[in-house]
Design goal:
- The complex is a heterodimer of chains A (737) and B (498).
- Chain A has 737 residues and is α+β, with helices and mostly antiparallel strands.
- Among the domains of chain A are: 2-63 and 698-736, no CATH class; 327-370 and 421-554, no CATH class.
- In chain A, 44% of the residues lie in helices and 20% in strands.
- A 7-stranded antiparallel sheet of chain A has the order 13-12-16-11-17-22-21. In chain A, strands 20-19-18-23 form a 4-stranded mixed sheet, covered by helices on one side.
- In chain A, a hairpin with a 2-residue loop joins β9 and β10 (273-276).
- In chain A, α1 packs antiparallel against α14.
- Chain B has 498 residues and is an alpha+beta fold.
- Chain B folds into 3 domains: 5-58 and 463-497; 64-143 and 348-462, f41 fragment of flagellin, N-terminal domain (Up-down Bundle); 180-306, Immunoglobulin-like.
- Chain B is built from 10 helices and 14 strands.
- In chain B, the strands form 5 sheets. A 4-stranded antiparallel sheet of chain B has the order 3-4-7-6.
- In chain B, α1 (5-32) runs antiparallel to α10, α3 runs antiparallel to α4 and α6 (161-171) packs antiparallel against α7 (281-317).
- Chain B starts with a helix and ends in a 7-residue tail after the last helix.
- Classes of the chains: A alpha+beta (737), B alpha+beta (498).
């Protein structure tokens, strides 16, 4: 019955138009929904038994270009990474304030220099002295605050990573569920376009957080892997793990050794255990990569720059610039168990000693251990600990025992459990003399001492040797004073030469003859020289009637002008900053910017800003109106060129303290600007790809309206056909009746 | 290419947002006048901006330092002028008094006291509370006050200049009758009679010292001993009229006095260095010795006393720590004062360290330090104070005995010292003047560098207002266009035509 066939055909037309309307209405309704892909339902002519049987709609499908989608995800990940870095860097830059407002710490350094200079003009003013202390405190405060903010931001980044990991894990579970639903629908040939949209939404979330690769199985399920190819979702989800932190300090850094790691890390749970994804830098894109970059590279780099700055600031001002520190050492070559070593050297509290132990002709060096205790037993214990801790000996292989009660009378005995002969033991104290104090006196049995005399250059400079008469507490001093040429070779003087080398030679010969005059027998103390280093040796250590006690050079001007302006507020009480933690091997420099503070002694009594030791022997202080020390501080802050550690990310920098502060800010500003540039460029690319993607998947309302017109027509026409058929049927029935 | 409605909308929205951001930035640039909101906006220029700002601030500090130094230097110069003037006045007053009438001599002490008081005030001048002639030592006034200087500190048992002069006068044997200036006179009887002048304490630092002896005619004079402790004059047996003996005697202040004795046969001519040739050589020798004693006593009361006062002042002023005479009545010795338990007033209490001019410095530029520490114990100032102190201490007692001659001798010596001190002060003025000039020239340079730096900074930091305004209106136009296009595109929907 062809009439019935026509009825059925137009009915199928109506049905198809309805389905089409459904699709269009959804498209129009979702025109403003982000992530919604345009749906289409193609229609085809139905052929039954070789004959056309109307029209039918196929399953609803998404209009999507998967290749562009993949590209978009890659670009978005890169974009996310850069925008996180940019955001943090902008905040770093904001910490330095506006250029014209001079709020940065570089301005604070300059203010310190200026307050020293103002003090130099009027050193007696208590107000100006206080001003210097306050300005220094403000600078230290700036550095502390910057460091605190840096660490806060690192903690924030760390917590951002925790959030990110949680989001990824949720998304993975959601995708797994969607995978199952899609699988079921795909097998029965039903449309899963909307489920796929949902799944894409979660996948987008993941790929904005980290770079992942993925592919779709034939059954419609998607498999997700990390950028480095480790499976995250196949049949089962493999979750990411993160061990969040609540405290982050400058010392907390990433390490692939879990015991040394101070920040959280992201790991992937696999059958073989957890894999640390940060160890091999396996997260390279997305927000997480940006956070990692900020937490582990950008901010620690800035912190290390500030630390280096604080380190140089504290040491440059406090270091005795020209007074050479004597290298003291005690040597003996007694055979067998070595006993009878005097302890004076260590009573002063060496925090950095080196022990050379010679056994059967082989010397083993045990460097960098502290013997800052005072009684013999503790010193023996310290040395024992250093020996046991070294790789050269098994614990207990060499034992050290002490006799005597205190450092002055105690003696050490070294015993080798293997029965080998201990040929000799040498201690060297590498501790720099603490700033602002006279160099420590040498141990009575010191064999030799070496002094760098390169600072001796102007008339009035002196070189002194102290020696003691054995068996008495009396010490005597031989002092030579520099005089300008020609000089008449008066006793107690040496002539400054045309060149420094000549001066050194003159000092050497003058010193030898001066010592020979007073130390008997002549030649007991011998003077030798290598370049600018003069060594005095006690040639007859055991039988000498006099013992070498000290060797120093004093130069006028800069010699004793150093000032301990800053200390380390790390613990409960302020400690001196020496660049090394007392009793520990950790570097005191790390995080020093967070702990730097004005020396408490100076805060309590700012007169030390002006009054320095004129003569360590008599303790005579410079008069209150002497501007030498503040002037020297100005020079050290603004004119003295230093070499800054190239390990802080800026390459080797040779500049002043003030200059380095400027370099740091400028370096950070340039980095921020570069990140912003890269972000703008990446944004452009991402936008382009996004537009390409949207041109396929996006909804255009006009498009849909046109489609709607067509459907309306089809619907109207099909209804027309229906009513025509009905009329024809009616007429046919009427005719029959 | 198909255009997605959403993407299109988002795109328009993004463009509008971007334009708005630019507009807002330009707006704030116009408001603040600055290009950058953070160092990131300056990029690599941030290094220059920071450096220039640093320089600018440093320059300001240099200028402040220079201002302080300039004030001090000006006060110093004024003080120098007045110190020089006081020295000159004292000298002129004394020298004129020497050639004028007696009442003028009476006023010297009083005038000198007033002048010295002013001089001490000048040496203790302060700028902004800080003594300017004390080097780096600011605890006290550098120079002791007039009363302490002259009369000492009886409470602390410290001797002043008056007492030092008196002690020295005694030690130098000014008033020793028969042994003027510590010299003994004797004769030996003939044949071959001699007259001798001996210094029993040769080698000590007091009284006359025997320098050279010469004779003319038949007389001969011999000097023996090292140091010379004996002059022997012989040849009285064949003496003739007009024969002379000339002794050169050293005085405590390092000057010498010459004593010439001439033989005569006329009794009426004797006295004033002329002695009578007696009937035999013993008598002649006796006459010679008597005349020599009289002359030496006169010399002791005049030149020796003046020189003694001068030497006493030098002990106090020219030595640090000061010297004093120990046991002036017995066996006098020169002692060095122990600063820990002093005997003598410390006239200068300022800085004595070796730093000299550099005790007070101005840092006028990078690495440029100009030292201008002047101390009250520098020779010209010290000598002026010392000279006035001598005048203030030694009073003219009236024309009695040798007093007038003594005072003339004193005036001669002191005015000589004052002349040297005067030219020293002028040298000091010149030296400080050069430093002033140098500082001013550096300041001028700072001014021009500051102006230049400000210009550079403004180029780097400041926004060009015309350019910013142009940019602003450009963005404004774009934004307006965007809005109107957006509105029109929104109307251009098929929906409106169905």
């Amino acid at each position: 019955m062809t009439l019935t066939a026509a009825l059925m055909n137009s009915l199928s037309g109506l049905r198809s138009a309805q389905t089409g309307m459904d699709v269009i209405s959804r498209n129009v309704a979702n025109a403003g929904t982000e992530g919604y892909t345009r749906k289409t339902a193609a229609q085809e002519s139905v052929v039954l038994q070789g004959q056309g049987a109307g029209v039918r709609r196929l399953a609803i499908e998404r209009e999507i270009d998967l290749r562009v989608q993949r590209e978009l995800r890659v670009e978005s990940a890169a974009n996310e990474k850069l925008s996180v870095i940019d955001e943090f860097r902008q905040r770093v830059d904001a910490m330095f304030g506006r250029p014209e407002e001079e709020q940065s710490f570089a301005s604070a350094v300059n203010r310190l220099t200026r307050s020293f200079q103002t003090l130099a003009d009027k050193p007696e003013s208590a107000t100006l002295r206080r001003d210097v202390v306050d300005t220094a405190a403000a600078l230290a405060g700036d550095l502390n605050r910057l460091s605190d903010r840096i660490q806060d931001m690192r903690l924030e980044a760390d917590q951002g990573m925790v959030d990110g990991v949680r989001t990824i894990n949720d998304a993975l579970h959601n995708i797994k569920e969607l995978n199952q639903k899609i699988g079921v629908r795909a097998q029965s040939g039903r449309s899963y376009a909307d489920l796929a949209d949902q799944r894409d939404h979660y996948l987008d979330k993941i790929s904005s957080l980290m770079d992942v690769s993925y592919f779709e199985r034939g059954s419609g399920e998607v498999v997700i892997m990390t950028g480095s190819g480790r499976p995250m979702l196949d049949v089962n989800v493999r979750e990411l793990r993160i061990d969040g932190r609540s405290v982050i300090t400058p010392q907390s850094l990433y390490s692939d050794d879990p015991s040394a790691r101070g920040v959280s890390t992201i790991s992937l749970v696999t059958e073989g255990g957890e894999v640390d994804l940060l160890a091999n830098n396996e997260i390279r894109g997305g927000k997480l990569a940006g956070l990692i970059e900020i937490r582990d590279r950008a901010l620690p780099e800035l912190q290390s720059q500030l630390d280096e700055f604080a380190h140089q600031l504290a040491t440059t001002l406090s270091v005795g610039e020209v007074t050479a520190s004597p290298v003291t050492s005690v040597t003996s070559t007694q055979a067998g168990a070595f006993a009878g070593l005097d302890f004076d050297l260590f009573g002063s509290g060496s925090t950095d000693a080196t022990l050379d132990l010679t056994i059967d002709g082989t010397t083993v060096q045990i460097p960098n251990f502290a013997i800052d205790n005072t009684d013999a037993d503790s010193i023996a214990a310290s040395i024992q600990q250093a020996l046991d801790g070294s790789t050269a000996f098994a614990p207990g292989e060499i034992t050290v025992s002490a006799s005597g009660s205190d450092a002055l009378t105690g003696a050490l005995t070294f015993t080798d459990s293997q029965g080998r002969k201990i040929d000799g033991v040498t201690f060297t104290d590498n501790t720099a003399p603490p700033p602002n104090t006279a160099a420590p006196a040498l141990d009575p049995s010191t064999a030799s001492t070496t002094l760098d005399i390169s600072s001796v250059a102007t008339a009035g400079d002196t070189v002194s040797v102290n020696y003691a008469i054995t068996g008495s507490s009396e010490t005597r001093t031989v002092t030579l004073t520099a005089v300008d040429p020609p000089g008449n070779g008066e006793p107690g003087t040496f002539v400054l030469g045309q060149s420094q080398a000549t001066t050194y030679g003159n000092i050497e010969s003058a010193l030898q003859s001066a010592l020979d005059d007073v130390v008997l027998p002549a030649g007991t103390l011998t003077v030798s020289r290598t370049g600018s280093e003069i060594t005095i040796t006690d040639s007859d250590l055991s039988a000498s009637t006099q013992e070498l006690r000290g060797f120093s050079a004093a130069t006028r001007g800069a010699a004793d002008l150093q000032l301990t302006l800053f200390g380390d507020n790390g613990g409960d009480a302020q400690i001196a900053y020496t660049g090394r933690q007392p009793g520990e091997t950790t570097d005191q420099r790390v995080g020093f910017a967070q702990r730097i503070a004005v020396s408490e002694a100076l805060r309590d009594d700012p007169s030390a800003l002006v009054r320095y030791m004129l003569d360590p022997a008599t303790g005579e202080l410079a008069p209150g109106g002497d501007s030498a020390r503040p002037a020297e501080m100005v020079r050290r802050l603004s004119e003295m060129t230093l070499s800054f550690d190239s390990a802080v990310g800026m390459g080797p920098v040779e500049t002043t303290i003030e200059g380095f502060a400027i370099e740091i800010i400028s370096f950070q500003a340039t980095q921020t600007a570069q990140t912003s540039d890269r972000l703008a460029y990446q944004q452009e690319i991402t936008d382009n790809v996004a537009r390409r993607f949207d041109s396929v998947s996006g909804v255009n309302i006009d498009d849909e309206m046109t489609e709607l017109l067509l459907l309306e027509r089809t619907y109207a026409a099909s209804s027309q056909v229906l009513s025509a058929v009905q009329r024809m049927m009616d007429e046919l029935l009427d005719a029959v009746r | 290419m198909r255009v997605s409605t959403l993407a299109n909308n988002l795109h328009v929205r993004q463009q509008v947002t971007e334009l708005q951001a630019k507009l807002s930035k330009t707006q704030s640039q116009i408001a603040s006048g600055k290009k950058a909101e953070g160092f990131r906006d300056l990029r690599a220029d941030s290094l220059r901006v920071l450096t220039l700002r640093n320089e600018l601030q440093t320059m300001e500090t240099y200028k402040k330092s220079i201002a302080i130094a300039t004030t001090r230097l000006t006060v110093m110069q004024d003080s120098f002028s007045r110190i020089g003037e006081l020295g000159d006045k004292a000298k002129i007053n004394a020298v004129q008094a020497r050639y004028e009438n007696e009442p003028r001599l009476n006023t010297i002490k009083l005038t000198a006291e007033t002048q010295l008081a002013e001089l001490i005030n000048l040496a203790n001048s302060r700028v902004d509370g800080r003594p300017i002639f004390a080097g780096a030592n600011l605890d006290t006034n550098p120079v002791a006050d007039l009363d302490t200087l002259l009369n000492g500190d009886p409470l602390k048992g410290l001797k002043g200049l008056n007492e030092l002069i008196a002690d020295r006068r005694q030690a130098d044997g000014v008033d020793n009758v028969g042994q003027p200036g510590g010299l003994d006179i004797a004769t030996t009887a003939g044949p071959g009679a001699t007259a001798t002048l001996s210094d029993t304490s040769a080698g000590d630092d007091f009284g006359f010292t025997l320098e050279t002896a010469a004779a003319s005619g038949a007389l001969s004079a011999a000097a023996t001993g090292t140091p010379t402790d004996l002059f022997t004059v012989s040849g009285f047996d064949s003496i003739d009229e007009g024969d002379t003996v000339t002794f050169e005697l050293g005085l405590p202040d390092g000057t010498t006095a010459t004593l010439t004795l001439t033989a005569t046969r006329e009794a009426s001519e004797t006295g004033n260095g002329t002695f009578l040739i007696g009937p035999d050589e013993d008598a002649t020798a006796g006459n010679f010795a008597n005349e020599m004693r009289a002359e030496l006593e006169t010399l002791a009361a005049t030149a020796l006393r003046a020189a003694s006062a001068q030497a006493a002042a030098a002990m106090m002023f020219d030595n640090d720590p000061p010297l004093y005479v120990g046991d002036p009545g017995g066996t006098p010795t020169i002692e060095t004062d122990d600063p820990d338990s002093p005997t003598v007033v410390q006239w200068y209490r300022g800085d004595t360290s070796a730093t000299g001019r550099n005790a007070v410095q101005v840092k006028a530029d990078d690495g440029t330090y100009i030292g201008y520490g002047v101390r009250a114990n520098e020779a010209p100032i010290r000598d002026t104070i010392k000279s006035l102190a001598i005048f203030a201490s030694v009073e003219y007692q009236g024309d009695i005995g040798d007093e007038k001659q003594m005072y003339f001798s004193l005036i001669e010596r002191v005015s000589q010292t004052l002349s040297v001190a005067g030219s020293g002060i002028r040298d000091l003025q010149g030296e400080i003047g050069i430093k002033e000039e140098l500082i001013v020239s550096i300041e001028t340079r700072h001014e021009s560098v500051t102006a230049l730096t400000n210009n550079q900074l403004s180029d780097l930091e400041s926004v060009d207002m015309y350019e910013a305004a142009a940019r602003f209106s450009e963005y404004e136009t774009s934004l307006q266009a965007s809005y109107s296009i957006t509105a029109r595109v929104q109307n251009l929907s098929l929906v409106n035509f169905l």
